[in-house]
Amino acid sequence: MAHFDLTGEENAGTYFAALPGTSGTDFVQHNTTPMKARFFASRDEVAGCHPSRWIYELINNRFTVCDLFDRARAQSAEFDSPYTWDHPHKLVINGNQSYSTSSAQIVSSICLDCHFHFVFKMAWEEDHTSGLCHHSQAAWPLQDNMFPWHHLAWAGSASPGNMASDYSKYNPLLARENFVCTAAPCTLQITLEISQPRMPSWWVKLLLDHEAIRHELDVAREQDPGRYEGATDEWAYQTPLNLNTYLKNQLESTAETVRSISKRNKRFAVLFGPRCFSIFRELEFQEKIEDNNGVDEGSFTPRPAAPSAGPLGTTEINTYRAYLEDVRAEVQCLIHKAGQAAEKPTFCTPMLHGVLQCAEVKDVESNALVGTDRYKLLGVLPSQGREIVVNAYKRQWDLLPSSRKELIDALLNVANDAQDDLLIEYAVTQSSVYESQPRQQAVADDGGTVLQSLAYFELTPPNNYPAEAIIRAFRKKLVDDPADASTARGVLMMIASESQDDHYQANLLMEADQKMSLETAKHVIGLNDSSNIISDAGPATRKKLQQCQKPKARKLYLDALDSIAEHTASPSLKQAAQELAHESESGIGMGSADSGAPVDFSLPVGLDNIGNTCYLNSLLQYLFTVKPVRDVVFDYDDLKLGLSEDAIDKRRIGGNKMQMDRGEAVVADAFAQELATLFNTLQKSEKTATRPSQRLANAVLLSTHTLLNSEKAGDRQGSPLPPPLPSRPLPEPAAAFGDGSGDVNMVDFEHRGTAPLDTASLSSTKTLVEHEASPEPSHERVENVAEPDGQMITSTTETSNADDAVMVDGVAPASKPSGDTQAEKPIPTLDARTTDVDMVDAEAPETIDQKVLSALERQKRSSGTDQQDVEEVMGSIINRLQAAIRPSSVDDKTGIQLERLMETFFVTTVNYTKKFHEQKYQHEVSFDRSITAFPAENGPCSLYDALGRNFDQQILEESKLSRYTTIRTLPPILHVLIQRTQSTGSKNGNPVIIPETLYVDRFMDMDHDSPAFQRRVEDWITAKRIADIKTDLAKLEDNPSYLRSLEHYKAPEPLTSAKLSTQDDAPEEVETFDFDGPVEDDFLLISPSKPVVEQEEVSVPKVTGVYETYCQVKQMMEDELTRCEETITAHNEELKEVAYRLHAVICHRGQLMSGHYWVWIRDFQDNVWRWYNDADVKENKDTEEVLRTLSTSGEPYFLCYVRDGDKDKYVNVPKREQPLQPEPGPVPEPVPELVPELVPEGTSPPESASPEPEKLVDGGVREMLTPPPEPAA
């Protein structure tokens, strides 16, 4: 509900007299989307409009800016539609295709008259929902930081090539138009898709050919009068009704309940008959032909449509189900036009107004003003309120800087049309302020600045060049001399400053910014209009960097890539820019790992990135150095769980004792085998880097649910055959087929008896490694099969609706009964004239094992920016390995199944809570893969402080609780997650100082009555005091000069004790409106008169010693801080019994949802750190340097410590196996040298009959051997 903030006439005057964007209101957040960024990057002046005008122009085919309808008129001859489209559209809701979520809304509609389809796809950034325009911000006068209504501008059309992939019979797209709301904080964008009718003209002609139908009816009556005794002439007008019924039943049917249409059905034969068979073939019905003495007694069987799989159970557009809904909607339009519709259609225009939060203007089409230029220019409709008009005026002011005078004139005229006194006053004020602006005077080029600037860009004076020509010369300069970019920008700014044209200036200044325009950035790195900017920008930048050595030129290329990433809002390009910047600074990574250089066998093998798997590569390299993991992988045949149902059913994973299903067991088994293959390759590879299999990556990064559901029933165009039919229960008696269709005989499928099936789901209530919530129960089925010993084994199968499966049998075969079940009797066969069409039956369904293994090979992952959390992926790897092996023991008290991995990685923690009035703590024990550390909100902190934020006491005042956490048991390998995800959805990049040796004594569990625990409580109190002092010190200014100024302050005259006069004596407030000259600072001043006061002198004492007192207080705080820190340090120095050494650090650079990972791993045996960055592996022997690097950035993310006394037992870096070298053959006898005098003059001595032998040394470097000397005589 709109509110009107009448803040007084003083403020009203301020806003009246300020041109848009100059009122000095609060900061306005500028949010963007890729579409919005591209719109503003184009810098073309494109007008927008209020949503109600946008809807009006769309409905009436007369967009002011968008050329959609002009293009349509030029192509009208190509449209296959029985109706003209150039008329006011009556849009009604279509099918089950519309829905709304927290960040999107889809409205699918069809024109009742022309049958063209209009789909409105509205989306916004969920994180910026609060920034969306909303009518609750409406107020008068409207401030610059208020955005009550959207203002929609055309952001361009999709190219034919872009739409080609989505064009099909199911969705014959004609146009895809993009629109954005131009309000600064709003992220609303609209994609309008228009497509042709699904029913071509010849369909409609056949369905509405009443004379032909009446003729068929007459013939039928004459040939079979008894059968058609009840038929009436109304049948000639009921063809759309019957087709609507067929489609309704088809959409509601499944593979088990679908019913065929007999060609001899009396109504079907008359209304449709052979002349309409092609319609049903186009609808992908399966046709059966049965020739009986020249009469076709076959049938048409509808193809079952896959269930709706869109959001909230809606139908996905461009699917077979959507196609059927679209056809049915067009049929219903025919029914509506014939006056046969029982219900009125649901018009979507009110829905559109509601979604876009605007009100429909009644009878606007009859208003003669609607098409005038002033309303088009402002983008509003006649009779809309003053707040709407001013909102549109402010948005257009930003969009059309060269038409601002025309905008003010239009505002004046619209205000006069409305006869709105407040709006007229506002418009007059705006006009006066605009006219009173001081005009720029021409600047004389006395020093020849412009001439020199033009010469720098190789342009000939005088400067009569348009802005585009100057910008082209500027871009050429950047390409020719990238190291001189800063000078080029300065020259461009100089040319801009000499101009008196605001628009000209703005264009040049925008180009001079370091954040380049998209076109300039593309020129700099060498991309052209045919380039795929997302895929080509990164490699093009890398190539430029490799070809230049000048730091300034390299910076220009990096800035260009960063600008492209900003304009396109591409996380992958942002990641590439960050990586190339890092590589450019460090001088690494500029070449390929396989650049032809000799392989250094002293370095471990790198891992190629196979599509955004840097985080997985980092974890695999780390786990390869953990001995228990390698033992499990290499000894898998002796440790594996196996895939028997009994073993899977009894296995429980982790501290929560989670049950797994068969699919998870199959994935785990495949993963363990793939990991063994990779580990073997890492030991034996003769290459610099190897490539992990996609099968391994899928097993870790995709959930079992995703793998099992990867074969979603395809229902796109391509196969007219219906999907395979699974075994199904006995059919129920045929139900009435639609309303009013009693004589439309449908034919049921012939069906034989099947063995009973107990439908059940094998999915556990909580799966092991699911990364997404499981939706509805899977379509898995359990079938009991008898074993020879009489026991029942459950075999799992899954039904399939894949449309490429071929059915082979005419009827469903009867399955053999199991040992203790009895086969049911087959159903008697029906008469041939009424039986269903012979359908081929389904092939044998895939088992869960086959399904999962096939999906592991075939399933594709996104190679975009779907970075997964390292801790999550680490958990997935450990869980997969746990699920693949047998437990080694079971804890008697808890029933937890233990194995090598759990004993190696899992830490036992205890969470203690206590209410304020209670004496004893409540506690809860948990088993975790890692412990969590939280960086400081501001600045660096130690790892101990970061862990303290998790383990130390917390006081919850609202809940009246205190709580803390301890460690009860520690594993040999301790993982520490540095939690950098903040509640705001951003990344905490503050450094954490990482110690080489971590002592965890201070976090261990202890008796609450022990002296050690009492001292821990004291340390908590001291730590809290330290935090408070640091917070207070941070608020103080260093050496604030204003404190000394207070000591020298002296009032210019005695202060007074003011006493207001009585109300009767106070004069009335006076308002002044001065328009004699320009209004200073764009404000209209409203000055109230001051009340009369009686003055009484008061003496003011001089303030002394202010600064000295400040320094004393600050010193006291610093001294207390030092004492507290020394106390805690002394206590912690005594707690150094439980020591862990740093073994590995996984790092991340980038944003929260994207970026790049790498890992540092220490080789204790060689006393060296190695840096693994996908295929690159490098060494650093300086531990202090590595720790200093890790402790001064926000990149470390996952720390891996190993118990100091056991590090040689649990971790090491396996050495690469040197390639086998062929044994050298016997050394040939040396050939005696020829005596010089025996060699003819002018000739050389002959070469030896054998080449000199060679040997391999130092990893492949060949060294020539000198033949051994002859033995002494």
From TrEMBL:
InterPro entries referenced in this protein's UniProt entry, alphabetically: Papain-like_cys_pep_sf (IPR038765), Peptidase_C19_UCH (IPR001394), UBP14-like (IPR044635), UCH_repeat_domain (IPR025305), USP (IPR028889), USP_CS (IPR018200)
Gene3D superfamilies on file: Cysteine proteinases (3.90.70.10)
Annotated catalysed reactions: Thiol-dependent hydrolysis of ester, thioester, amide, peptide and isopeptide bonds formed by the C-terminal Gly of ubiquitin (a 76-residue protein attached to proteins as an intracellular targeting signal)
Domain USP, residue spans: 605-1204
SUPFAM superfamilies listed in its UniProt record: Cysteine proteinases (SSF54001)
Database matches in Pfam families: RPT (PF13446), UCH (PF00443)
Residue ranges, compositional bias (Low complexity): 1234-1251
GO molecular function terms listed in the Swiss-Prot or TrEMBL record: cysteine-type deubiquitinase activity; proteasome binding
The keyword Hydrolase belongs to this UniProt entry's keyword annotation: yes
Keywords: Hydrolase, Protease, Thiol protease, Ubl conjugation pathway
Biased segments, Pro residues type: 720-732, 1221-1233
Keyword hit for Protease: yes
Basic and acidic residues compositional bias, start-end: 768-784, 1252-1261
EC number: 3.4.19.12
Region listing for Disordered, in residue ranges: 294-313, 710-789, 1216-1273
GO biological process terms, semicolon-separated: proteasome-mediated ubiquitin-dependent protein catabolic process; protein deubiquitination; regulation of proteasomal protein catabolic process
Class of the enzyme per the UniProt entry, highest EC level: hydrolase
Name of the protein described by the UniProt record: ubiquitinyl hydrolase 1
Source organism per UniProt: Akanthomyces muscarius (Entomopathogenic fungus)
Lineage of producing organism: Eukaryota, Fungi, Dikarya, Ascomycota, Pezizomycotina
